[in-house]
Structures are given as structure tokens and as C-alpha cells.
Amino acid sequence: xxxxxxxxxxxxxxxxxxxxxxxxxxxxxxxxxxxxxxxxxxxxxxxxxxxxxxxxxxxxxxxxxxxxxxxxxxxxxxxxxxxxxxxxxxxxxxxxxxxxxxxxxxxxxxxxxxxxxxxxxxxxxxxxxxxxxxxxxxxxxxxxxxxxxxxxxxxxxxxxxxxxxxxxxxxxxxxxxxxxxxxxxxxxxxxxxxxxxxxxxxxxxxxxxxxxxxxxxxxxxxxxxxxxxxxxxxxxxxxxxxxxxxxxxxxxxxxxxxxxxxxxxxxxxxxxxxxxxxxxxxxxxxxxxxxxxxxxxxxxxxxxxxxxxxxxxxxxxxxxxxxxxxxxxxxxxxxxxxxxxxxxxxxxxxxxxxxxxxxxxxxxxxxxxxxxxxxxxxxxxxxxxxxxxxxxxxxxxxxxxxxxxxxxxxxxxxxxxxxxxxxxxxxxxxxxxxxxxxxxxxxxxxxxxxxxxxxxxxxxxxxxxxxxxxxxxxxxxxxxxxxxxxxxxxxxxxxxxxxxxxxxxxxxx
Length: 509
Fold this sequence. Notes:
The structure is a single chain. Helix content is 29%, strand content 28%. It is α+β, with helices and mostly antiparallel strands. Among the domains are: 1-31; 229-507, no CATH class. It has a four-stranded antiparallel sheet with strand order 13-21-20-14. It has a three-stranded mixed sheet with strand order 2-1-6. Strands 4-3-11 form a three-stranded mixed sheet, with helices on one face. Helix 2 (61-74) crosses helix 3 (104-114) and helix 8 (244-255) crosses helix 10.
């Protein structure tokens, strides 16, 4: 019984060893089929085998690799790859290519079909190769490259971006807003172009490749947008009594903004937009303020343009980044709503804080300066207005007598006791400016935007410095001395009326 068990165990071991041996042989043969070259270096190509026109019959892998690669590289300079868009041609020559690798792997692949000793080739295929030889070709793309930058340059030249419709704004036209025509774009199908170039390098040294394009149709909702554009706000100030030169200055400054389109987030400076207010730049002489006194200077009146623009912007709910008041109040707007500009000293700066562009129409006629702001409408049912508040009157200090030691006013005064008024004293004001948001007739929000102090101005009277000669007498003076002001209760309206009477627009800055 024990002997039978031993014999049975011995047979099992033998079967197991034979199985292992069979699997080992099968694995070796499998490797010989797929990885024959790694198992032996003696394999050679069949007779009548050509690769890229090189007869590699009887060559092993290393010999065939060198022969075919040398032949391909010798043909490199004969390559002429022409790209065309149908109108223009660009030639990529062999000299533009770089050698990027060798073809050993490709030769090894071909050897799996065209070498002697591969017992796993189907008999029919093997016999066919033996009889007719193997005619094979390796693409030049396997060893050439380095033209990507040149191809990119060609693509950048031929591609056309899609052009969206844009809003044309002509403030002087009957139809101020129109749309430009949109244009389809053309982009190169890079994947398809790469495929065509690879295919062209498969066999032909000279080939023409048509560049493939994909049309891009711009998606634009400008047609809907333009329908929503409307007047956000307008503001006007009167200059009917001003001189022709002052009016000309206001109109010139406004013209710099007429037709302006301000994109979302864009910041605009009044001074940068209008440029230097000089005679050379076309500005005329009119009243400006120097040291609290009106004097003649180039660009006088430009502050009325900046003030008109400022108030239109406030009513349009546009963000103001910089604004300053005059030293002497202007009568053409309420206190705290003027905007003094002076090159290098004071500016009006605003920023489009909306999500869409605003469009400015600015002009002057014979009696008024006008600014209109267009864009997307203000919140439904909401209107914007401003409110000025007089906090208190700041009393002036009265007149001060100053001797004319330099003879600056010698045409008016010479002797002690002779007087000439240079400047009247002016009361000052503490004021506030508010922006109100109104809906259904009720103020739903009020914001403080200004808190100003227009400082009082002392009066100045000059007196001559020479002594009277013996027997000389001076005529009675017509200069009335004004004492320090006693502040009385005044209202915003009374101050407004006083300014219009004592500071007419003809003398405004």
C-alpha cells in the first residue's frame, strides 16, 4: 500500500516538472516572437527587404538602423513642406528641422516581421516575405522635429480673432448709439494640422499641406444692450452774463469730454483730459481767483465746466475720487456743489463704478453749459437729487489797511491819508452737500458727500506812504471802512441770493 502511494507521488512530481518545463519553453518562444531582438543579436532581415529605399537584406538591427537613418538624414535637406491658407504659402525646408531621435525602435518593429528565425510567423506570411521581400517605410517625423515655433508663427499670422459688435457713440448725431458689424474669426485646427504634416512626411520629401481652419462665430448680446442705454442724468449751469472769452473757455473744456466713453473701473482726471489751460492751447483770458481776488488769467471760467460735469456725475451715481471747493463761492451752483480745478493744485477725478460703460455728452450754447450722462438705467423707480445745507456763516474780520510801500498802487494813492480798496471783505460758510435717493416721492437714502469750509476773506485797503507837503490838503475819501462782521442768522436761500447779487457769474471762476 505504501509503495503504491510512493509511485503515485512520484508520477505527480514528474507531471509537475513537465508542466513547468513546457511553460518555460512557451514563455521563451513568446518572448522570441515579441522580443526576439532582446534574446539574440544574430537575427537578420530576409532577402529583398527595403526600408526607405535602403536594401537591408541580411543586416541585423544595428546595421539596418545606421543604414536607414543615414539615408533619411542625407535626404533631410531635400524636404520642402509647403503650408498654404489658399492665398499665401509658407515653406518649411529641411534646414528648419532638427534631428530629434533615432529609429532603432522602428527597425526592431519591422524586424519582427522581416527577419529570419521567427518560428511564430504564420507560414503564409513568412513565405510571402521570403518570396517578395519586405518593402517598408519609416516616417521622417520619427527623427525630425524642432519646427513648432515656425509653425506657431505661421498660425499666428493666419488666424483672425472674432470681432464683437461694439457700441459707436456720436453725441452730435441724431441717433447717438449705433452698433458696428461683428466679424467671424478663423482659428487653425492645430490637431488636424499636426496630423496633415505627419502624413505629408510619411513618404514625400516635397508636399503641400492646406492649413485647416475652424470658423468662430462671436456671441454678442450688444443688440440687447444698446436698447437699454438711456439718459442717467443731466445738469446745466447758466453763464448768460459772461464775456465771450469766458464762454469760449467753458465750451472748450466741455468739448474735451464730449463723446467720451468711460469703461467700468476706468478713472478720469479733468486736468489730464483738458490739458494745460494756456493761450497756446487755445484758452482765452478771463477771471480766475488768486489769493482770494479775481484777476485775469488764461482759462478763466473752466471751473464752471468742471462744476457742471461734477453735478451730472453725482446725479448719475458715479464715484467721485477728488473734488475741491473754491476759496470764493461760485454763484452758479449751491455751496458744496462746486468743483474747483487748477493745474497742479486741484483736480476733479471720477471713476466709473458701474458694471457697464457710461457715455458723456458735454457742450455749451449761448446761455448755458450742459452735461448729459448716458448708460444703463438707475435702479427702477429711483431718482437722484442733491441737497445743500448751510451749517453756519463764518464772519469776516473787516478791512485791513496796508501801506503801499512798493508803489504798486501809485496810480491810486500816493500820500498818507489817501486810500484805495483792493479787496472787499467776504463772509465765509460752513456747508454740507448730500446726495438723496428718492422713490415714490420719498427719500429712501441720503448720503453726505461734502463738508466744506469756505473761509472768510478780510478786506484790503492800501494807503499812500508819502507825507503831505506844507499847505497841501487831501480831498475827502470815498473808501468806506468795513468793521468785523457781526454774524446774523441766515438761511441757505438767503446766502444763495446774496451770492448771486454780490458775485455774478460774469466774475465767477
